[in-house]
Amino acid sequence: MARMTMWTITPEAPGSPVAAALWRAYYTEVSDRWYLLYEGRRTDPAELEREIAAATGAELAPPHGRLLVGRYDGTPAGSAGVRLLDAQIAGLTRVFVAQDMRGRGGAALLVAVAEDAARALGARRLVLDTRGDLVEARALYARLGYTETGPHNADRYAEHWFRKELAPVN
Description:
4 helices; 34% helix
């Protein structure tokens, strides 16, 4: 008989060891991709440590945010965060699935649970930004009903902005 494995998505404290490990994996991957593309090198280790330490994820803590961790067969494998930007709009951030767990539906599930978390915070719209080289992320958001829009922030690395209107909870 085949063994089924499943994703579970649960809230996590941004400062937990699991959250910190996923943030490190996420930041290392996206930073290395940028540096390899534009400078032909990986992220400098000192810069990596400085940036990881500076971005604690405190804005993803209740009552104005949520950090979600996806576990595949019990193993931490991905994350997504939401934070209120104002009373009606939440930002989606840190959507990440570990490379060896991709292709198993985790990213779409993390985004769906993040949308529910944003609704629970009172948001009616979810916005996000991403870079041009993160083509997989852009394809995911488009597939999940996000519409590319004009800029909604001045983030240094943002090149594409998306939004999605959230249907009210019945």
